Each structure stands twice: as structure tokens, then as C-alpha cells.
């Protein structure tokens, strides 16, 4: 255990670690969004506003064979039809341990 931890009250060290991890996650998400928005801003499209008209965020389950589905509402809003090519960014929300369904 590093010397800077207060050994008399371990929850304080845990709380600091959780806060540090949260701050790092926020910084990574901010950098990710900056990189995602950079092309639309460089093209003079107004950043998030323009991006929001051409993207959708939704949750879906991975089906057999690794397939995912785009919900009807999102396909309609974006004008996506069968056979269209789309680009995806996949961010797992949760993982299952061995033995889970």
C-alpha cells in the first residue's frame, strides 16, 4: 500500500481512489467527444447541433452471431435503409461474469 494512504482509516484512501478514477473517466470522455466533434466543427457544421442531426445514441443487446439492431425510430430519423453502410462506435455498458445468462 502506498505511503500516502491514511492507514488509520482505509475508506478515506478508497474514496480518493474512486474520485481519481471518476476524474480520469471524465477526462477520457471529454477527449473522446472532442475528437468526435472535431470533424463536424472543422467542416463548419456547428459542432454538436449538426452532429445530433446525423447521429443517434441508443442501447441494444448483442444477438447471436454478434449482431446488433438499430431501433426503428433511429433508422427512420436518420434515413437509414436496408443495405446502407453505417459507422458504429461500440461502448460496452456492462459485462457478464462466467456462469451468468
From TrEMBL:
<dbReference type="InterPro" id="IPR037914">
    <property type="entry name" value="SpoVT-AbrB_sf"/>
</dbReference>
<protein>
    <submittedName>
        <fullName>AbrB/MazE/SpoVT family DNA-binding domain-containing protein</fullName>
    </submittedName>
</protein>
<keyword id="KW-0238">DNA-binding</keyword>
<dbReference type="InterPro" id="IPR007159">
    <property type="entry name" value="SpoVT-AbrB_dom"/>
</dbReference>
<feature type="domain" description="SpoVT-AbrB">
    <location>
        <begin position="57"/>
        <end position="101"/>
    </location>
</feature>
<dbReference type="GO" id="GO:0003677">
    <property type="term" value="F:DNA binding"/>
</dbReference>
Amino acid at each position: 500500500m502506498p505511503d500516502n494512504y491514511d492507514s488509520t482509516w482505509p475508506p478515506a484512501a478508497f474514496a480518493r481512489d474512486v474520485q481519481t478514477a471518476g476524474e480520469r473517466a471524465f477526462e477520457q470522455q471529454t477527449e473522446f467527444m472532442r475528437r468526435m466533434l472535431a470533424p463536424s466543427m472543422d467542416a463548419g457544421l456547428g459542432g454538436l447541433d449538426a452532429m445530433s442531426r446525423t447521429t443517434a445514441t441508443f442501447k441494444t443487446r448483442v444477438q447471436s452471431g454478434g449482431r446488433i439492431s438499430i431501433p426503428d425510430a433511429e433508422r427512420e430519423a436518420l434515413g437509414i435503409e436496408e443495405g446502407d453502410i453505417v459507422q458504429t462506435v461500440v461502448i460496452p455498458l456492462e459485462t457478464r461474469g462466467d456462469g451468468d445468462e
